[in-house]
User: What shape does this take?
Amino acid sequence: MNKTIALGLLFSLPLQVVAYHSQRCKNPIEHVQITAFDYDKDINQVMKIVEQTKKWTFRGWSEEKIQSFFKNKAPQIKVAKINNKIAGYIVQRISDFMEDLKEVYVRFIAVSKKYRKKGIGKKLLYNTIKTSTKKYRRIHLCVFKNNKNALAFYKKIGFKKIFESPSIIELHIEI
Ligand SMILES: CC(C)(COP(=O)(O)OP(=O)(O)OC[C@H]1O[C@@H](n2cnc3c(N)ncnc32)[C@H](O)[C@@H]1OP(=O)(O)O)[C@@H](O)C(=O)NCCC(=O)NCCS
Assistant: This one.
C-alpha cells in the first residue's frame, strides 16, 4: 500500500478528532459520515452541489441527464453527510475491463463550496481506497488540466500523473 495512504488511514481518525475539536469553535462542522447514496432522499441536495461544480464534473450535461445518471449509478455513489446534510459525493466505476486491470475508476468527486478544505474530499477518497484495497491495485481518474484545485488535492493524497493530453491529465495511485 502507498505510504501516504497507509499513514493517512492510520492517522486519519485521531486527526479527525483533533480537527473536529479545533474547528468546533470556529464553525458548526461536526461529525462526517460516509454513506451509500439514496436517490429519493439525496438527489435534491446532491444536485445543489452539482450546480456549484458542474464546470469540473458534469460539464455540458442537461439536468435531466444528470438526474438519470444519479438514478442509474446509485450503487456506485457515496455521500458525505454532516449533521444529516450532504456535503459531498463520489462516483466510482468498476467495469469488466477495470476488473481485469484491478483498477477502480473515480468518475466524479465534489464537495460543496461551504465545506471545502475541511477534509471531506479526502474522507470520500479514503473511503473508496479502504473499500478497494482487498480486490484492487489502483485508483484511477482524469482531471481537467486547468482544474488547479483538484490537481493540488489529488497530489496531496499521493496521486501520480500517468498521461497528459492537451486538456486532460490522467492520474493514479497504487493502493
Ligand atoms: C477537489 C475537491 C473535491 C477537494 O475537496 P476538499 O474537501 O476541499 O478537500 P480536502 O479538504 O479533503 O483536502 C485534502 C488535502 O488536499 C488539500 N487541498 C484541497 N484543495 C486544495 C486546493 N485548492 N489547493 C491546495 N491544496 C488543496 C487540502 O489542503 C488537504 O491537505 P492536507 O491533507 O495536508 O490537509 C473540491 O475542491 C471540489 O469539490 N472541487 C470542485 C469539483 C472538482 O473539481 N472535482 C474534481 C473533478 S476531477
About this structure: The longest strand covers residues 85-93. The chain has a mean pLDDT of 88. Residues 95 and 104 are 8 Å apart (CA to CA). The pocket of coenzyme A is lined by residues 53, 56-57, 109-111, 116-122, 143, 147, 149-150, 152-153, 156 (CB under 6 Å).
